[in-house]
């Protein structure tokens, strides 16, 4: 089927989304559809004033509640009783600034805001560039806040229609998510909408096309495909009524709709409704416009409030606002997850039908919240804001092992740790570093990290437990465990350190099944008033590592002590037992203060006099000791004078 086509001249400007940065907390607003928006907020983030510019006949197409004789107008919302008056100024094609203002309104119990329709008076047959901004002023004319200047287009307009249409307009409109398009809006007469004779569709279409394109000159040019698509859309709208479906109050032709085959246009009208899709397979939208309501009722104005950020699992306040000239409209919040949000994440509104409410999300990422207002007359109106949810790291609590737990080699050392995470949609992994060159990595289960490990040799091992969520948040904790081997040899030594400490030590596990070592330790600790000598009454444990390092822990009647031995080195630590069975952060005496308790990092000091003997092999019983330590543990202490140890001073045990 062939159709006579007129060539439309226009330039399609892509990406006209206008950004408006209002006075206040720095919210960015996007122009939606054929409107540009500006809002002014107070310091608390509440909207006090808003305006939107409706290009051409876009508002009438959306709502059918303003006269088609009112193109290119502003809708202004003002909060009442706040001492601030709205002022809108604009220029069209660089002409002198026009303006409009109103005194601060007085609210009623139902109307805390007031709506205004502000006509620009632009009713020309050509589209024109324009600029505008909204300002808030006090009673003396002092400016309290302002939006940035908005850039937009005043749509072309004609009201000298034929017997087939009454008004027509050209304006730029958002199209899908890829930019904008040129829209031809035509208001058909009852004659055009009542057509049920398919034979004269061609004649009616050509008559409307010729008349509109003559009265509304276009800037630039469009491709042949775009012109043909526009013509096919008009033909479809005329033909649509023959199917017994009256359609809406306007016909809208969009240049970005693809130029589909005539067969699809004519045969699939009931499917695509003259609104065919943009996909390569020519998918259909099937969205014929519907009739609106009372021409005297303005659509609501709605504001979703400023963009906000919050930690996952915490509630953030959404400062939405909705107003209508017929009273407070019904409102509802919805949300959509961004591409950076994990599957399964959900958000909850405390009061989804209240303009001011809170939102809590189970995972981090970017969410778009939408506040929709419905006055029951017009099409619902929506506004959006962005909620950025920050990740919060999990919090770890290690219950096992306890610090200084003692375990025999070749037995299991358990790790039990629980954690909490306000991001309930997060997944977690656990990692345990055992300090012997091995690690365990595994997924957490039910908020817990549980595993165990068997040490092959004795040592003082720092067990590091770490939990990480799927967004990289992490928490960790360390516990030191003592691993002894009763089959190890003996640790012995006697001597002095540079600070005056004197020591003798002999410790060994008597049998392969022993759980505590036998032996004795004596420390002569230098003090400000002399010496404090500590003689062991019990030994708790002995660690001898394969690389000939040793540590022994025990207690006297009143003090606890630690002794670290390496070849030619010793470290002594003492503290009152009233401070606990393990050394406090600041013990009474430490020959290497501040060093780690871990045997590998204990940093014992070089001996000034004496020697140490560490035997990593094991023989049953207590062996004969090398000179000058004596021959048995029983007479070890009697050898101290021969080792030149200073026993003078306070010798209280």
UniProtKB/TrEMBL annotation:
Residues 327-389 form the PKD domain. It comes from the Bacteria. GO terms for biological process: carbohydrate metabolic process. Transmembrane segments: none annotated. SUPFAM superfamilies: PKD domain. InterPro entries: DUF2599 (IPR019719), Ig-like_fold (IPR013783), PKD_dom (IPR000601), PKD_dom_sf (IPR035986). This is PKD domain-containing protein. It comes from Streptomyces jeddahensis. The lineage of its organism: Bacteria, Bacillati, Actinomycetota, Actinomycetes, Kitasatosporales.
């Amino acid at each position: 089927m062939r159709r006579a086509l007129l060539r439309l001249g226009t330039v399609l400007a892509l990406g006209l989304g206008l950004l408006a940065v209002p006075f206040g907390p720095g919210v960015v607003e996007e122009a939606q559809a054929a409107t540009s928006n500006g809002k002014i907020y107070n310091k608390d983030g509440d909207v006090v004033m808003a305006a939107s510019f409706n290009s051409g006949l876009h508002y009438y197409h959306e709502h059918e509640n303003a006269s088609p004789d009112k193109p290119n107008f502003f809708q202004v919302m003002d909060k009442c009783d706040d001492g601030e008056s709205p002022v809108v100024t604009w220029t069209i094609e660089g002409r002198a600034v026009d303006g409009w203002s109103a005194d601060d309104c007085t609210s009623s119990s139902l109307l805390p805001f007031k709506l205004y329709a502000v006509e620009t008076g632009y009713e020309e047959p050509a589209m024109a560039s324009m600029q505008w901004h909204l300002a808030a002023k006090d009673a003396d004319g002092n400016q309290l806040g302002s939006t940035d200047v908005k850039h937009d287009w005043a749509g072309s307009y004609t009201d000298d229609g034929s017997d087939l249409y009454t008004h027509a307009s050209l304006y730029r409109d958002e199209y899908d998510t890829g930019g904008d398009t040129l829209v031809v809006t035509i208001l058909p007469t009852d004659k055009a909408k009542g057509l049920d004779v398919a034979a004269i569709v061609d004649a009616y279409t050509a008559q409307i096309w010729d008349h509109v394109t003559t009265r509304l000159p276009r800037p630039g040019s469009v491709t042949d495909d775009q012109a043909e698509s526009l013509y096919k859309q008009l033909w479809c709208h005329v033909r649509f009524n023959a199917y017994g479906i009256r359609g809406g109050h306007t016909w809208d032709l969009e240049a970005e709709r693809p130029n589909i085959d005539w067969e699809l246009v004519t045969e699939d009208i009931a499917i695509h409704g003259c609104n065919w899709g943009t996909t390569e397979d020519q998918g259909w939208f099937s969205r014929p416009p519907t009739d609106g309501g009372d021409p005297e009722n303005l659509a609501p104005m709605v504001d979703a409030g400023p963009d906000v950020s919050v930690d996952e699992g915490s509630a953030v306040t959404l400062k939405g606002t909705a107003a209508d000239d017929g009273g407070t409209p019904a409102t509802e919040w919805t949300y959509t997850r961004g591409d950076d949000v994990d599957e399964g994440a959900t958000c909850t509104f405390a009061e989804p039908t209240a303009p001011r409410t809170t939102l809590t999300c189970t995972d981090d990422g970017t969410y778009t919240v939408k506040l929709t207002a419905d006055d029951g007359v017009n099409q619902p109106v929506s506004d959006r804001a962005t909620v950025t949810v920050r990740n919060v790291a999990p919090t770890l609590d290690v219950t096992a092992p306890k610090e200084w737990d003692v375990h025999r080699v070749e037995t299991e050392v358990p790790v039990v740790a629980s954690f909490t995470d306000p991001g309930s949609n997060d997944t977690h992994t656990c990692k345990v570093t055992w300090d012997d060159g091995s690690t365990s990595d595994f997924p957490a289960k039910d908020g817990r990290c549980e595993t165990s490990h068997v040490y092959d040799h004795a040592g003082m091992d720092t067990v590091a437990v770490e939990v990480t969520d799927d967004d990289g948040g992490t928490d960790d904790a360390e516990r030191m465990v003592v691993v002894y081997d009763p089959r190890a040899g003996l640790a012995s030594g006697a001597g002095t350190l540079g600070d005056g400490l004197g020591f003798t030590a002999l410790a060994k596990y008597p049998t392969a099944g022993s759980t505590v070592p036998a032996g004795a330790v004596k420390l002569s600790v230098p003090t400000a008033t002399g010496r404090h000598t500590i003689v062991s009454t019990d030994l708790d444990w002995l660690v001898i590592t394969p690389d000939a390092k040793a540590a022994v822990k025990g207690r006297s009647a009143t003090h606890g002590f630690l002794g670290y031995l390496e070849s030619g080195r010793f470290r002594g630590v003492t503290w009152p037992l009233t401070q606990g069975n393990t050394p406090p952060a600041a013990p009474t005496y430490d020959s290497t203060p501040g060093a780690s308790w871990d045997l590998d990092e204990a940093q014992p000091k070089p001996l000034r006099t004496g020697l140490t003997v560490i035997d990593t092999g094991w023989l049953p019983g207590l062996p004969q000791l090398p000179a000058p330590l004596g021959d048995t543990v029983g007479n070890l202490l009697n050898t101290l004078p021969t080792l030149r140890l200073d026993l003078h001073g306070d010798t209280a045990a």
